[in-house]
Design brief:
Elements: H1 2-12, H2 16-22, H3 27-34, H4 36-54, H5 58-78, H6 82-109, H7 117-138, H8 145-148, H9 150-166, H10 185-191, H11 196-227, H12 231-281, H13 286-292, H14 295-314, H15 320-349, H16 359-380
Length: about 400
């Protein structure tokens, strides 16, 4: 399930913006397309995840969503005008983004130990790599839109495959409202933000999501323009982090059992700080910059994957899809949108008359944000349980 889920995303993500440039879309139009996931994250909280929590078995919700999403991806492949492409991509986003929360819900509902989630989620990273890497060899350096549209055809085919496969997943029924249960799952999930430890985690997740998404906004240009890595190799260098992510996902349960929630998350967010500090101070060392990509596994698994596991344990069962969607709102939506606006503006402000970017000063900003998030966690995050529950101590 996770392999197919992330393979859909990995098939089109690396080439989305270059493809829109080939179609002649303006920067403003490309920004509108880039905002679709933010829109979908907001809508998902109030409608899609609410529907999954209260009215629809999770595996059937997944099947219907990927059926519609697959058809929309085929439409995007053949759409050459902006209104048609935007419409297909927006509908695809609206049905795909909520499934990222629902797949988490299905996994947790059918795992005897939530700490095993890391090993399950590692399959998603493998799926992403398997879907994205072949395009490095299939597409030439000068491929036109008639060739690059294959990214959506492949993604659409994977989506339809997952729609069919979803019907074979374990039945994960909804939790309808009843006595003492709010009919609006999203309202109950939002209400839990009144608990200090949830509010603190929500704030830090926002900070880390801005830093995390900022990495993807700035990294490719930094590697090619400052470090001097060839453009056709930058995707390979960036993908080293995904390989490391598989390893860290596999050991996440072991780490959580020994370090606990807070320390694991602090290590994860400090991974961002370390990576950006390396970018700031070691840009002249190609081996160092390549090696530091391996920190991506720590950054993602030890913070974001840990957040998903924590949400499953800390939130009531009947609102877990909405709760996962609430944090996805930050990770995939608001954090992405803030990073997409903040870091290009900072880059422009730190670009000199000669066109050279002061990457040293630029990368100190996300490093500082990550450090601030780690300090907030250390001082204010006090979850009810220091470590995840296990079948033995639950």
């Amino acid at each position: 399930m996770m392999a197919l889920q992330l393979a859909i995303w990995g098939a089109w993500a690396p080439k989305l913006f270059p493809y829109m440039g080939m179609l002649g879309f303006t920067p403003g139009q490309q920004a509108l397309v880039g905002s679709c996931w933010g829109i979908a994250s907001v809508v998902g909280i109030f409608f899609s995840n609410q529907f999954a929590d209260r009215n629809f078995a999770a595996e059937r919700f997944l099947a219907v969503s990927h059926l519609v999403g697959g058809l929309c991806l085929f439409g995007a492949a053949w759409a050459t005008t902006f209104p048609a492409f935007f419409g297909c991509y927006l509908v695809y986003s609206l049905v795909y983004v909520p499934t990222l929360s629902v797949t988490n819900t299905i996994a947790f509902a059918n795992l005897s130990d939530g700490k095993d989630f890391g090993r399950v989620r590692a399959g998603g990273t493998v799926g992403w790599v398997m879907a994205s890497w072949p395009f490095v060899f299939i597409l030439g350096a000068h491929s036109g839109p008639e060739d690059v549209r294959a990214i959506f055809l492949v993604a659409g085919a994977i989506a339809l495959a997952l729609a069919a496969f979803s019907l074979t997943l374990p039945h994960t029924p909804p939790n309808p409202a009843g006595d003492g249960i709010d009919a609006l799952a999203w309202r109950r999930a939002l209400g839990l933000l009144r608990q200090p430890f949830v509010a603190v985690l929500f704030l830090v997740t926002f900070i880390d999501s801005v830093v995390h998404n900022g990495y993807f906004v700035m990294a490719d240009a930094f590697l090619t323009n400052r470090v001097g890595i060839a453009g056709n190799l930058s995707m390979v260098v960036l993908s080293l982090g995904q390989i490391a992510e598989v390893v860290t996902m596999l050991v996440l349960g072991w780490v959580l059992g020994r370090l606990g929630w807070r320390v694991t998350m602090i290590v994860g967010i400090l991974g961002h700080a370390a990576r950006f500090l390396a970018f700031a101070f070691l840009a002249d060392s190609v081996p160092a910059i390549v090696a530091v990509q391996l920190l991506h596994g720590i950054c993602y698994a030890f913070f974001f994957a840990t957040v998903y596991i924590f949400v499953d344990e800390a939130f009531p069962k009947d609102v877990r899809s909405s709760a996962q969607g609430l944090f996805n709102l930050l990770i995939l939506g608001i954090g992405n949108m803030v990073a997409s606006a903040l870091f290009p503006a900072l880059t422009a402000g730190l670009t000199g008359p000669d066109g050279q970017v002061d990457y040293h000063r630029l990368f100190l900003v996300p490093a500082g944000l990550a450090a601030a998030g780690a300090i907030i966690l250390a001082l204010a995050f006090r979850p009810p349980n220091a470590v995840p529950a296990t079948p033995e101590n639950a």
